[in-house]
Amino acid sequence: MIPGKVFEQSLLAFFAPVGEYLKDPTVSEIMINGPDEIFVERGGQLERTTASFPSRHALEAAVRNLAQYVGRHIDSERPILEARLPDGSRVEAILPPASPEGPTVAIRRFFQDTLTIEKLIGFGSVTPGAAQLLHALVSCKQNVIIAGGTGSGKTSLLNVLSSFARDDERVVVIEDSRELQLQLPHVVQLEARPPDARGRGAVTIRDLFKATLRLRPDRIVVGEIRSGEALDLVQAMTSGHGGCLSTVHATYPIDTLNRLETMAMMSDVEMPLHALRAQVGSAVDIVTQTSRLQDGSRCVTHITQVLGYDADSGYQLQDLYKRKYTGKDASGKVQSKFLPTGHLPRCLDMIRALGLSLPAEMNRKPVEAGS
Q1: Tens digits of residue pLDDT in 204-231
Q2: Distance of alpha carbon 340 from the chain centroid
Q3: Could you state, in order of their start, the residue ranges of all structural domains in the chain?
């Protein structure tokens, strides 16, 4: 058997053409569209590099070596690979025939330093007042869904919000591919597994979720909801498992609930639509919306509470904070303010019972927060 360290060095040698970007802390994503077309993302902006692989065969060899490193299989019949590099970077690779022009690879880099709420405030992603509110909401075990588009900072925000859990809580984390780095003393990390080349041995998010309910979790964190596991999460949220955290791809808070509803319908459990919608409206307490703006910056755009579901008017939402855009400065940077709307969270009594408080700005005269 090849020693792990030697295997890692061999793998990195295959990816040597992009090695400098794997070491560059300013690079958040490396996109390989073929041996001679490589882009990177810095500060939310794409730029083409001069890097290249010697040949299409060399790039494909790198992907196959990575598959071997993580114990997975990739070929023309199973042309998609989800994996991680030794430094934790997430890799999505697609081989022909699914990628007719040749191997396509995207490498998502992650912060090596621990991301904190203070750093997010420094970046302008949230305000101190909004951060105080989020801390209170997570502390009193509200069920929070973080929603946003690709690359909008959902996973980073989930890492930060999870740090607001108490040190004496047992937190179970479920992911397709391990990305979260929770800075808590009692964390159980679970990871799904695809089937092998013969279609055996698959462990799905739903499998892990069902097992998790018997692991005595104080809090369940699901890296991303993609399919039928949405129903498992909704039912857990409504059956005494408070403080659940997860992410969903969605553009606006209302889209988040509609997507959860749609994904819950992908499960093998048949349920009347009105009953499902009532459960979704009861399960989710808070939607925290993230976005990547035109200048590449990432920020929280909404903190929205869910008031329930009404058969006549649909999901009832109420913004607690909303971002107001005021234009761009001379350098093209988007100017905005993240403002309280004047509404207070429904869990205010619980927040006070824990000895916490809301930011003073939430108790002032309501602010008109346009979009």
Answers
A1: 999 999 899 899 999 999 999 999 999 9
A2: 24
A3: 4-108, 117-363
- Provide the sign of the torsion angle of the four alpha carbons 324, 312, 149, 321, taken in this order: positive
For residue 351, the SS3 value is helix
Contacts of 334 (CB under 8 A, 6+ apart): 293, 294, 295, 297, 325, 327, 328
> Which of 43-47, 71-75, 365-369 is least confident?
365-369
Q: Do domains 4-108 and 117-363 have the same CATH topology?
A: no
Reply yes or no on whether the pLDDT at 2 is more than 70: no
CATH number assigned to the domain covering 4-108:
3.30.450.90
**What superfamily does domain 117-363 belong to in CATH?**
P-loop containing nucleotide triphosphate hydrolases (3.40.50.300)
**pTM to 2 decimals?**
0.86
